[in-house]
Amino acid sequence: MSTYVQLVNNLEQLKLTKIREYLPQYLDEAIHKTKSLTETLKELTDKEIEFREDRAAVINLKISHFPYQKGVQDFDFSYQPSINKAQILDFCTLRFLETSDNLLFIGSSGVGKTHLATAIGIEASKKRVSTYFIHFNDLITKIKKAYAENRHEQVVKHYSKYKLLIIDEIGYLPIEKEYSNVFFQLIASRYERRSVIITTNQPLSKWGEVFNDNTIASAIIDRLVHHSSIIKITGRSYRIKDKIQFDEGDSSSRPTP
């Protein structure tokens, strides 16, 4: 067996996929002395590292449980002028994670809260930051089940481990006080340690109704807003955007009576 075949076998056994793929090309360049041995090894290992980082990013995106794959580049800021685009782009740099700050997106249904929260989460996931997205109602369902089985502390511990936790759409349905208390424990466990992104269709002043207890609601809000950026979105729903544009286009084409 030739040395080259042995080398290829070693690369396959070590699962150095990209080095194996690019090896013939770089050996040809080495023969013609267009690159030094050090340059060749450096570039081959760069290829392998890039491949592994890309693969890890894809895996992270899958396990982060995002509702869809939409980035900040897919968001139409011109349709929602109340949003500071520069601020959102700054969030996408993930600076807020370094100080364990929280982000709260507040606005009515359809204005783009979930899209922006997802876009920021995708940026974090691509950077191999442990990230998880969950709808508030799904989280409460898990808390209810765990509470009935006396293992709600495990749920708190599980969702406390992610460096970034995204909780979508707080406020559609009120929840019982005992489950509100477990949710408070989750928020308290992350306080000043790990970041949370919240989207909600309810102003903070109405969270007492959501959590069926003003004291618990105040305690949750206190820990969420202490180190946070609050983004209030006002404007029309994206879900009717195409309809509005169609109607406007249609009306503009009609002859004036």
Overview of this protein structure:
This protein has about 260 residues and is of the alpha/beta class. The protein has helices spanning about 5-15, 15-30, 35-65, 85-90, 95-100, 115-125, 135-150, 150-160, 175-190, 205-210, 215-225, 240-250, and strands at about 100-105, 130-135, 165-170, 195-200, 230-235. β3, α9 and β4 (about 195-200) form a beta-alpha-beta unit. A five-stranded parallel sheet has the order 2-3-4-1-5. The longest helix has 27 residues, at about 35-65. It is about 55% helix and about 10% strand. Mean pLDDT is about 90; it is low at about 250-255.
Keywords summarizing the entry:
five-stranded parallel sheet, single chain, elongated, 257 residues
Helix and strand run: HHHHHEHEHHEHEHHEH
| Rg of Cα set | 25 Å
Uncertain runs with pLDDT below 50, 5 residues or more? 251-257
What portion of the residues fall into strands of 2 or more residues? Answer: 5-15%
Helix segment count?
12
Structural class: alpha/beta
Strand order of the largest sheet: 2-3-4-1-5
What is the rounded distance between the termini? Answer: 88 Å
The level of helicity is 55-70%
Morphology call = elongated
Mean pLDDT: 89
Task: Give a count of the beta strands, DSSP E runs of length 2 or more.
Answer: 5
